[in-house]
Amino acid sequence: MSAILFLIPAALALGFVALLAFVWATKSGQYDDLDGAANRVLFDDDEAPKDPPQKNKK
């Protein structure tokens, strides 16, 4: 019985922290563009790299 007296407030506190983290993430714009990254993968870049990396020859 004494374990329940500890576990119920701990569970409520963790749930409240998770709720605060979710509200913070939505207000900071984490979920604004859900399809952008998925669409970006499908399209090639039109520009070639300006300076290809050169190997050091010693």
How is this structure best described in words?
There is one protein chain. With 58 residues, the protein is mainly α. Helices cover 57% and strands 0% of the residues. The protein has 2 helices and no strands. It has helices at residues 2-27, 36-42. The protein is elongated, with a radius of gyration of 24 Å. The mean pLDDT is 84.
Give helix and strand order, one letter per element, not per position.
Answer: HH
Q: Shape, please?
A: elongated
| Residue share in β-strands | under 5%
Number of helices: 2
Overall mean pLDDT:
84
Radius of gyration: 24 Å
Biggest sheet, in brief?
none
Structural class: mainly alpha
Helicity range: 55-70%
Number of strands: 0
Roughly how many Å apart are the termini?
Answer: 73 Å
Low-confidence stretches: none
